[in-house]
Amino acid sequence: MMDILVQPPSEVQPGITLNPPIVIVLQNSSGAEDSETIAQDTNAYWALASVVSEDGLTALAPPDPDLLSGTLVDSIHEVSENGERVAGYLRFTNLAIQRPGSYRIRISLIQMPPAGTIANPSSSSASGNARNVMSVVTHVIHAHHSASASVIGEHLSDPL
Known about the structure:
mainly beta
């Protein structure tokens, strides 16, 4: 299971780092095949932040490489309990939307193919190719020059 633990602010100034940063939590879900696989090998996964339209349906960055700046990828940071992996988290600490508008940020969890496999360029889901395992989308973020620099994001709980 993949959820947003800390949402970005709903209003931001273009070019200013989102504060608080987006934090995503990954938790094992009993019976969920992807959750069990992720817990067994977190090194095979990474996450990508991208910008989508306000309705969440159209990818904007990419293809526009100048709309979102900062570190757009993160690997899973593991959380263990009694020596067993129970969860992980992802933090996107320096993202900034560069132009005015209304957007959402999509965080996609990507599974890399096992070492030594050969990619199949004609299929995005075949063995040997990276695949999008799951995604979450933030609430709408309004980027405009009159946004308060002191706007604080909405927390569901304290960041990890």
